[in-house]
Known about the structure:
Elements: H1 2-11, E1 36-41, E2 55-59, E3 65-67, E4 87-92, E5 99-102, E6 106-109, E7 117-126, E8 137-148, E9 164-167
Antiparallel strand pairs: 1-4, 2-3, 2-8, 4-8, 5-9, 6-7, 7-8
Amino acid sequence: FFTLSVAIFAFSTISFGQSQSTASADAGANIITPISISNSQGLDFGDIVSQTSAFTVTMNASGARTDGSGLSGDQSPLLSTDAGTQALFTITGEEDYKFSVTLPSSIELTATGATPMTVNGFTMNLNAANNILTDGSVDLSVGATLNVNDEQQAGAYTGTFNVTVAYE
């Protein structure tokens, strides 16, 4: 009888509680437009007359140029022949996404055979509330301060600077 019972149980299927379970999940991705920035106007401090003492010239992000020499009227080193311009950029990307802007801390303007001048104090005006790409595009203007050395040599000084934008 024992041998017969073992043989019957060996060929039968024994049912136990459930030992595994499977569930499904959705998968997806949202590809967005890359953020980009383009420049339409460079930063220009305009025509400046060299002085015996060092001074600064500030071009603010709204395009207003100010003289830091302490001189006024006809004595001012700023000439009206070229009043300069702020730099202008356009930022484009995915509509309604938040972004950040990074300005340089300083750069140098150079001319052949002349002492370089430092540009620092970069500032910006951005027509985007809370740095959000409303309508996928915003305008950015950039200003800075030029440090003119005493008896700065005459010449056309040039340099470049980078403005970086990134999604947050």
